[in-house]
Records
---
Amino acid sequence: MTSQLNVDTIVDKAGTGGANVKVANNAVAVAEGGAATTNVVQGLVKAWINKPSNGASINDSFNISSLDDDGSGDFGVHYANDFSSTNYCWSSGCDDAATTDAVTNMDSTNGGYTTGSTEFETYYLTASQNRTNSDVYSFVSVVGDLA
């Protein structure tokens, strides 16, 4: 028999604040109009990072255990929790205070991607600019099924 719990707010048993809530792999969120649903677990970003394009430092991140520095603008992102397969999807971007012609892409020549890491490169579209400019920041987010 199924059951339903109707509440407005869930708080800890002391009534002082938020509570830990677990949802199953089949939990769904209903769209604003009510006609569509989204799987909550599959719809979450599983890893993200914000970093300067030069060096192996991290400004902020989620589910990233470490970086490797492969040279000017080249870096590898290593996940704290691996993906179940290489069928995950990443999205990247970058920001340069001086110009708008820099990009961050997956680097297939330096290892590409595995279930535990993805290699990226950040570079300018014009050859006259240096890829190691510390004013360039790379942003990457990753979605997919964790192992």
---
Amino acid sequence: MTQSDSATRWFHIVAYVVGGLFLANFIPHFMVGIAGGPFQSPFATPPGEGLSSSMTNVFWGLLNLGVAYALLGRVGRFDHRKWPHLLAAASGFVVMSLLLARYFGRFHGGMP
């Protein structure tokens, strides 16, 4: 393998950030879904505000996990021991986590 084969390109870093976003979005939908509860999803009426069934949320969560895997595990050579890779994925995860807390907090009493 040559050095260019293992080089991290700018679009790999972008993919890792977006992968972190999808990984964070996986958690609330999947967790509420497997607990049997309804939760907001893009498939509800109105989208993102109404409640979807637990099964819809499990599927939506798994789709998010699949996209996260595709972006983190199949784009470039993601290595959690490389700081740029880890920071890119973690930054996407943190940003999405904070945005989700703010957004869903409106519906569940977590934010004024």
---
Amino acid sequence: MHTVFLEFELGDRSAKVYESLKPELGAVPSERSKVDMSVQEGRLNLFITAEDIISLRAAVNTWLRLIKIAEEMLNTKVTP
């Protein structure tokens, strides 16, 4: 079993990113990896486990991309 722990210091945006990505936790496309996510003291914590290194890499890439998109959307300003 392979594991990785990632911690993102997002301040008050951590909870917003968590809430936006929470539905994705139940829609994981692979049965070969598992993702747990939590928010603690302004940090978004991501813990990924996978059966093999290939699955781990795929899961890490997917979740990094999702977090980046969620954070970019929070920083987007909409003008009328």
---
Amino acid sequence: MRPMVLPRHGLCSRRALLRSALGGVFLAPFLRQRSLEAKDATPKRLVLVFTPDAHPREWWPSTDDGGKLGLGAPLRDFAGLESELLFVRQLDHSWTFDNHHEAGMAQLFTGARFFDDATHYANGPSIDQVLLARTDLRGGTPIPDVHLAVADSGEGNQRHVTCYSGPGQPIPHEASPSRAFSKLFAGVSFGGSSAEGAPTSTLERELQKRMFELDRDAIQSLAAHLGQAERERLDVHLDALGELEQRLRPVNDAGTPPATGCEAVATSGVTTSDRQAANIEKWGQVQADLLVNAFLCDRTRVADLAFGSSGSQHTGLLGLKNGGTDSWHEVAHLSLGEQERTQSVSLDGEALTAAAAYAEFDRLWAARVAYLAKRLKAIPEGNGSMLDNTLIYWGVECGTDHNHGPSDMQYLLIGGRNLGFQSGQLLALPSATSAHRLHTSVLHAFGDVEATGFGIEESCGPLTGVLA
């Protein structure tokens, strides 16, 4: 007996099916997977931030009887954001080498040891790459992650890298705002003008639109032959595909206005000098604006913003005069000793103690981070702000007062209220605790709830008090 063959009337061919948007349904692993209940959820975002050397002791906040944070000199530009800050004190790195500059960089966001004795690269992925691999953090965005540098060349050696895709696989930074703009916004239309790589002809735009048009007739034909459970799953995939179509149309269809607030960023006026404060301020502002607008356009949800490099000198920055070296790295060394802290140095002709000067140097970088946080805070999103859905995870490579060791590391978590972070506090731990536990808490906040540890400490567990 011949097998029963269903009539072909009303069914599309396999080739036609795959050419239609329905083909995307069966390629669903390449689309953002989500449940019906979560389809309107606001996206989560992560920004890793690095600033050079360490912070002075004045960076740690004071607290009153009610636990309210009082910010010291280096963090003056965070005034008004106190409720967004989560400090954790008594965190240590798990191992060290030499003066900790390279060991600190390797494990800053990876929790790993050296990959080898030659490169001193990290022997594992950084937390952003772990989350991209294990969770839906990327969503439907076209770019998985972006890595930008300020006051640094962006080169890929061990003192300039903060993120890794895997063991011994550093991810270099892009120091040029104009090149970063081209990479982030290729094909994006901003009110009639397009970034490099955008479709330039009517035919190109029409073809691009048709790539994402839904073939409703073909879909309905197939749906008629499905059971109830299969139709429900098909509806979920169609919702995801429709969302992807709507996400792409505003930035690729010249006849449709871009997303609210999604706009071109002027990248001119930046010079590659790490010794002029005004240039660093401009450079940092432009790179931060690029990140914010990449979030607004939903081009990416994962970023890394690095200022300077491990042990960077920035000689003469802020008009520093300190004997024959004028190196900020040398001034940082003075912050450890009580007598050395009172040594006189000059900033733009004004005599200051080494401690006060170091606080001003640290503030230069902190102000750039505060600018990013305030921009995100000012953008409404969902039932709060974009900062509520974004974690800025800021770290340095050495412990307090540039101690050249792995103890009392200074990580600061900014924002992320809707991710469950208990911001607005100084979490003073009773004893020295592994920084890997804080990383594990961050994994949990972004959905990797099965993580039992991080890096070389696979079973350290999360840190109590970080998440609600």
